[in-house]
Amino acid sequence: MARVVLIGLPGTGKSAVARALGAHYGVEWVDTDDEVAAHEGASPGDLIRTRGEGAFRDLESRALESALARDVVVATGGGVVERVSNRDALRAAPTVWLDAPDEILLARVGEGDRPLLGDDPVRALAELRQRRRGWYEEVARVRVAATGTLDEVVAAVVDGMMSS
């Protein structure tokens, strides 16, 4: 089973934290978006635009299932909680919700390839938060503020997992 699984909105630093946690624990880290991209030969953004969000979520679910079966640190895409089956799997895993205020997230995502944020990222991010917040709360053992330095966030995740 996965060592730690990170969930949260776009821009919370899931990939950077996963990389650092992998080094901390001495295990590999996996980003489900990267796994999908490597398997499909296209970025998640391109897959959403060309095949639709539903098809992307199918691929994401398979990547999550594969990652959860291994002793790795997992960074998920922000929308992984959209599927009931994924929430069931995350609830059974050591899942940590990384969270930060929208202003910080918007500054971090900048001009990245985020088709779900569309032409009005402020509104879109607020809507994503509204829709996903309850799901993040439902599956996470720990909620960590992803507002400090990378080292601070990693330490908070490690401490939170030890306390849960």
List keywords for this structure.
Rossmann fold; 5 strands; 164 residues; 8 helices; alpha/beta; 57% helix; 5-stranded parallel sheet
- Averaged pLDDT, please? 92
**What is the C-level CATH assignment?**
Alpha Beta
User: What is the number of helical segments per DSSP (H or I, 4+ residues)?
Assistant: 8
Overall structural class, as computed from helix and strand content, comes to alpha/beta
The fraction of residues assigned to DSSP E strands is 5-15%
Provide the CATH architecture: 3-Layer(aba) Sandwich
* Largest β-sheet summary: 5 strands, parallel
CATH topology: Rossmann fold
User: SSE order, as H and E?
Assistant: EHEHHHEHEHHEH
Task: Kindly give the count of domains.
Answer: 1
- The general outline is globular
Our measurement of the CA-to-CA distance between the termini, rounded to an integer number of angstroms, reads: 17 Å
CATH superfamily: P-loop containing nucleotide triphosphate hydrolases
Total count of strands: 5
